[in-house]
Specification:
The chain is mainly alpha-helical. Helices cover 49% and strands 11% of the residues. The longest helix is centred in the C-terminal third of the chain and has 17 residues.
Length: 71
């Protein structure tokens, strides 16, 4: 999932996140602000990377695959 880096997404939790979390599958997301912290603190199968961080994105995908294999 990739949300644009706009002020609204630093404070508001889009409804699609709730739908994703109910599936209990690994989530790789480019997020920031409160929203990112909320997910990291409350959803054990979410991996966050920063905007423009290609290496961080690749690492997040690898980490999410490890979660999938543990299920």
């Amino acid at each position: 999932m990739h949300l644009n880096d706009i002020p609204a997404f630093r404070r508001v939790l889009p409804s699609k996140i709730f739908e994703y979390t109910t599936l209990k599958r690994s989530i790789v997301a480019r997020l920031s602000g409160y929203f990112a912290k909320f997910l990291v603190d409350n959803v054990p199968y979410v991996t966050i990377f920063n905007s423009g961080d290609v290496d961080g994105c690749v690492d997040a995908i690898k980490k999410s695959r490890k979660f999938r294999n543990k299920r």
